[in-house]
UniProtKB/TrEMBL annotation:
Pfam families (alphabetical): Esterase (PF00756)
Source species: Photobacterium aphoticum
Name of the molecule in the record: Carbohydrate esterase
Residues of the signal peptide: none
Domain of life per record: Bacteria
Length: 284
C-alpha cells in the first residue's frame, strides 16, 4: 500500500489522502495494469479507519481474484472523502448538483442544509490531476477501456455521473447502493440527455446494486424504499438507454447500507468488470 497523505486537489483548493493498492506481483512483473478509482478511500482497505469497523477488504478481494488465474490484477486508487462540514462536505464533492429534497424527506433535519454542487470539480480532479499522476508514476493501462470508477452511496452517485459525463476517460463504473434520493431529477435528466450515438462511440459497462434495507438515517423510515425504488427506476432507464450501455443490476435482499454489505458484493463487481477480456500487458 502506498499512501499519499497531502495530495493536492487544485480544482477544489484542498488536499486529500490518496491510497494506492498495487497487485502482489507488481514488483516482480513488467506488466501494465488497469486502474480502478474509488471514493471514501479511508473505508476501502483498513477496517480500523472505518466507523463501522469493517472495510471493503478491496485489496484482499483483488488478490483472491488474481490467484484464480482468470484475472491478471489491477491497481486500485482510493481517495479519502472530505471531512469538511461533517457529512455535508462529502456530499458537496460527490454531487455536481445541489441537493433536491424528496417529498418523503421534507421534514428530515438534513434537508434544510445546503449541500452538493462540487461534484464536477471533483471529477476534474480525478481526470486532470490524479489520473495523470498515477499514469506517470505507475505501470498503468491508461486508456478508457482499462479505467474504472466505483463507489457506494454518494460515491456510487458520483461514479455514475463521471461515467456518463466523461466516457472518454472511464469505460466502467461500480455503482453500489447509489444515493439517487440526493438529486433524482438531475440524474434522470442526465441519463435521458445522453445521446445514443454518443454512447455508440463510447460504450460503457455498469455494475449497480441495491439492498432492500438501505438507510442514510435509521431514524427516518422513508429511506429503505427511496433507495430501492430509485435504484430500480434508474437501472431500468439505463438498460433501455442504448445497446452500448451494458448494465447489470443486482438486488441484495435484506442488504444494509454499510461496508460489510459492499465488501460482500465487491467480488461480483470485480468478476463482472474484469474477468471478460480484461488482461494486463507486458512491456515490450
Amino acid at each position: 500500500m502506498v499512501i499519499l497523505p497531502h495530495f493536492a486537489m487544485p480544482q477544489l483548493n484542498k488536499t486529500r489522502t490518496v491510497r494506492i493498492y498495487l497487485p502482489a506481483d507488481y514488483a516482480e512483473e513488467a506488466r501494465h495494469y488497469p486502474v480502478i478509482y474509488m471514493h471514501d478511500g479511508q473505508n476501502v482497505f483498513e477496517p480500523h479507519l472505518c466507523i463501522s469497523g469493517m472495510s471493503w477488504q478491496a485489496g484482499e478481494h483483488l488478490d483472491a481474484l488474481q490467484q484464480q488465474n482468470d484475472f491478471s490484477g489491477a491497481i486500485l486508487v482510493a481517495v479519502d472523502c472530505s471531512s469538511d462540514r461533517e457529512q455535508f462536505g462529502r456530499r458537496d464533492e460527490y454531487s455536481p448538483w445541489p441537493y433536491e429534497p424528496q417529498p418523503a424527506l421534507a421534514n428530515w433535519s438534513e434537508s434544510a442544509i445546503a449541500q452538493g454542487g462540487e461534484g464536477n470539480a471533483y471529477c476534474r480532479f480525478l481526470i486532470d490531476t490524479l489520473k495523470p499522476y498515477i499514469d506517470q508514476h505507475y505501470r498503468t493501462l491508461p486508456d478508457r477501456e482499462h479505467t474504472t470508477i466505483a463507489g457506494s452511496s454518494m460515491g456510487g452517485f458520483i461514479s455514475l455521473y463521471a461515467l456518463l459525463t466523461y466516457p472518454e476517460t472511464f469505460s466502467q463504473a461500480g455503482v453500489f447502493s447509489p444515493a439517487f434520493w440526493f438529486a433524482e431529477t438531475a440524474m434522470k435528466t442526465l441519463i435521458a440527455a445522453t445521446s445514443r450515438d454518443f454512447l455508440m462511440d463510447w460504450p460503457v459497462k455498469i455494475y449497480m446494486d441495491i439492498g432492500t434495507n438501505e438507510s442514510s438515517d435509521p431514524s427516518n423510515p422513508a429511506f429503505p424504499a427511496l433507495y430501492y425504488d430509485l435504484a430500480v427506476d434508474i437501472a431500468d432507464q439505463l438498460q433501455q438507454l442504448s445497446p452500448a450501455v451494458n448494465c447489470r443490476f443486482d438486488v441484495d435482499h435484506e442488504g444494509i447500507h454499510s461496508e460489510s454489505a459492499w465488501a460482500a458484493r465487491f467480488p461480483a463487481f470485480l468478476q463482472y468488470c474484469f474477468t471478460n477480456g480484461h488482461t494486463c500487458f507486458a512491456t515490450k
